[in-house]
């Protein structure tokens, strides 16, 4: 009996995917508490706490660890049968107490789950009661985000946690600080967040970035043991969000949301809000840098002019490899929108654009980012699972697929190259270090896209060209 | 590193051998706020049934539980691949308010029509009972209409621990057992229980038994097929691996069909050989089996020992921490690591029972820390205190090891390498050697300070 023989003989390649109306098959989304936990990981000294069953935190931890390859401690109030019958108050308070004892956190971020929401737990009241029983000095700020997984995807959980954090912590300031901005980057990679912070600093601005998991989820080795990995935005900085000169919120679909952190700060503290798409590609990066220039009153630093020059040079050098190429793109809506904007700039037609999210704005957003002549050939799917995506990709036969690692099976079945972006990357090294934003992010992305296409031509050629 | 605090309520789930009287608590619901490495009831059911490759596995609930268990294990199938799909009713707010039965019914009908499975398992998640869905009734109706067994798995996450999930899975399997044709089954026949064919392990084990002259009726559930499960009651003996997961089924089969069971572990040369000899001993009336077993073990051991000895030379005296799901695996790993010249200094499991921990205490060297249902802080503390060179665990334990500059071996179900059997022992030794001897550790700050 030979194991490798067996596994070779039967592969996923033969699997006949059939979409269904009622069942979700191979979801292209995750549940809301995951997004909230990720946000809390971006606050200095914070411990996320899921109010639900033990599996909620363990599954989410495993999923995040497989991508970030970093410790991801997420506590859980660990419902038992009694808890479900009598309510989760006792467990939540015990969990808060134990987290304080073990981790001495600067903040606890409580995200609810489908279980606690369905039984109707009044979490704000539990938190209030917990505070009342403890000496004030021993209780850190506690943020509560309502994130039942039957409402929206991980992106809703993410944005709700950002909003809840700002709502809980931000206070009215003494006056506007002209060099301080709030940056709500959306769900980008640690490398992206680092790059955005560098750019902000280059304009002499200080950014309160929420969330900032650029270090907590992509840090170095430890010199000494860390209960909570270092990095993240300090609570005190978030508290000053109402004092900032401006808020910049990234994400095309988020910009159309009814409520958001930037909107809240604008309404309550008169902090001017600028809403942009993810700064991916040329025009979106231009807009982002121009916003920083306008806010700081400084010109765009030479270093970015140089980067822009190198990017354009690269795009010209490689334009024939990519122009008129057809691609399928999937992932979170804002990521898809960011990618599509860049693809349109280099002549790649996004013939399938899909997301598990359901903002109901995706089509409108995407149409605005590409030439009108392309609209007809685009299949845009909201609330899609991978069965629907595979069906659309099979029909469209694009040259390229761009998305996270969960599209590997379909890319393999259809023998179409997959360029990995976003989250999760569970089958390659370097997911957290993928740079998507800025001119440098666009350049890296362009190289990978062009090289995937070149590699396929090279490998598929009988000649075996060594110059391409 | 005493600065890492241990919660008061957790103290009795930690024991250092040779110190204080042995008075460990276990089999408890995890403590709220302690970052348990355990999952939930659903997880227990999901891991047991997952490898049944020609069944439809549908998770009834909001999307998370299905999304996080999509194609996560290295449980191979020699044929159908349906188990590698993730199916969910993806319940939304409207269903939470008005009930999810209709959506479940529709989803089952559509999926059964699309994929023609041999059976369907319907996993209940946390909110299913709370919103009042009668999953069993839906299952009965679909069974009637589609003519395949549609089995509810009562795996609501909060209703106990992972072990209760094992039990729920065994209950579902027990519905299938006894419904198949057993006429061609030999008197010297076994079922292999609690073996999930990670990286093809069940194929190795099955092959050993078959070469001994023992018929393997069904592997539960590695490379599993519904029809094989149906006729499992025809076997003469159940060989149960993995302490917690499938003993429930073995007990039910003993009660109803009079099939005795023995325990086995396939990790490490010692336990692997014992697993084969124990089966041979059970069929002691057939001396040919005994002879073939001896020859098989001899040949297999001879084949792997020289390389193991070479590896041992590099690993001699290194210290290991072991924290995995089931306690039975810990026993085997301790023995296997000894064979490589290594000493276990931290040993723990998510789901061990009182007997398991007593066995562990007797098996471990003095000064070993034994942990039940540990959290990352405790694991870190003792790994540091006991200066481990290697950590054996799952994905969730890996970053603990790496941040501290310690080698790591994944011994969980997500791995893709077979570590069981004689060949598996070689893979295991090679993997440990690769991680422990890497030159990168010389640059690790934690180790150099």
Description:
The complex is a heterodimer of chains A (468) and B (449). Chain A is an alpha/beta fold and 468 residues long. Chain A has helices spanning 3-9, 32-40, 54-68, 81-86, 89-103, 114-118, 123-133, 154-169, 190-202, 235-239, 261-269, 282-296, 302-322, 333-345, 362-369, 386-396, 408-414, 438-460; strands at residues 24-25, 46-51, 75-76, 107-112, 142-145, 177-184, 206-209, 244-250, 272-276, 326-330, 349-354, 379-381, 400-403, 418-420. Chain A folds into three domains: 32-168, Nitrogenase molybdenum iron protein domain (Rossmann fold), CATH 3.40.50.1980; 177-302, Nitrogenase molybdenum iron protein domain (Rossmann fold), CATH 3.40.50.1980; 315-460, Nitrogenase molybdenum iron protein domain (Rossmann fold). Chain A is 45% helix and 14% strand. In chain A, helix 3 (54-68) links the parallel strand 2 and strand 3 (75-76). In chain A, helix 5 crosses helix 7 (123-133), helix 8 (154-169) runs parallel beside helix 11 and helix 13 runs parallel beside helix 18. The model of chain A is unreliable at 1-11 (pLDDT under 50). Chain B folds into three domains: 8-25 and 316-415, Rossmann fold (3-Layer(aba) Sandwich), CATH 3.40.50.1980; 41-176, Rossmann fold (3-Layer(aba) Sandwich), CATH 3.40.50.1980; 189-300, Rossmann fold, CATH 3.40.50.1980. Chain B has 18 helices and 14 strands. A six-stranded mixed sheet of chain B has the order 1-12-11-10-13-14, sandwiched between helices. The longest helix of chain B is centred in the C-terminal third of the chain and has 29 residues, at 287-315. Classes of the chains: A alpha/beta (468), B alpha/beta (449). Chains A and B meet through helix 1, strand 1, helix 3, strand 3 and helix 4 of A and helix 1, helix 2, strand 3, helix 3 and helix 4 of B. Strand 1 (24-25) of chain A pairs antiparallel with strand 3 (87-88) of chain B, so a sheet runs across the interface.
